Structures are given as C-alpha cells and as structure tokens.
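Dear Dr. H.,

I hope your travels went smoothly. While you were away I took the liberty of generating a structure for the chain from your last submission, since the lab meeting agenda had it listed for discussion. I wanted you to have the full record in hand beforehand rather than looking at slides cold. The sequence, exactly as received, is reproduced here:
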Amino acid sequence: TDGSKVVFVFAGNDKLAHELDCQLDRHHEAIATADIRVIGYDGTTNDDGTSLLDGLLRTVATVDAVPYEQGKAAAEFIACSYEGHALHLRKRIVHPKLVGVSRNKNNAVI
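The corresponding predicted structure, in token form, is as follows:
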C-alpha cells in the first residue's frame, strides 16, 4: 500500500465475499483511494475443488468453520450424555481455520 489504511471487510460467507469483490472491481473508480480487502467465511469450493474466491482482486482469505469437527464434537457430547458421562465434557472448543490465500488476477499474493 502507499501508507494509507487498509480496510478489511469480513463477509458472512464466501458467496457474499465474491459478490462484494466483483462489485468493488466494477466500481473501482469511485473507491480508487480505498485499500479494501475482503475475507470470506465458510470455505466454499467450485465443482473442481478450487476456492470460490480464487483469482479475485481484493479477497485475501476465507475462514473454514470446520463443520465436520463441530458435528463430531456435538455427537460425542450427545453420546456421553446418553451414557451418563456428560459431566466429563464440560467444554470443547472447535477452532476455525484460515484457508487458502486467494490470488488476484495477476496471480500475486495480496
């Protein structure tokens, strides 16, 4: 950047991040002085397994909320509850993961 502040926008999901990035690209004249970066949330992939956000200009990453791990933790809790061992599972934190830095149209890491 040229010393200006960078604004990060966290989108509710990758589809919103994709649309926001495309709209910012279409209207770049109006926001030319702003350094905006977009982060998606959910790790959506295309049919070929690539990230929905690959190749966008302003999107730098997505967050994978690891739904499989969340489901596994919930199932373990339910199973322990059923067996009367729920007190042993007071808290289980499933940490989300930052995934795949998207690359801009020039294939350079932003």
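Two observations you may find useful: Residues 106-110 have pLDDT under 50 and may be disordered. The two ends are 10 Å apart (CA to CA).

With kind regards,
E. W.
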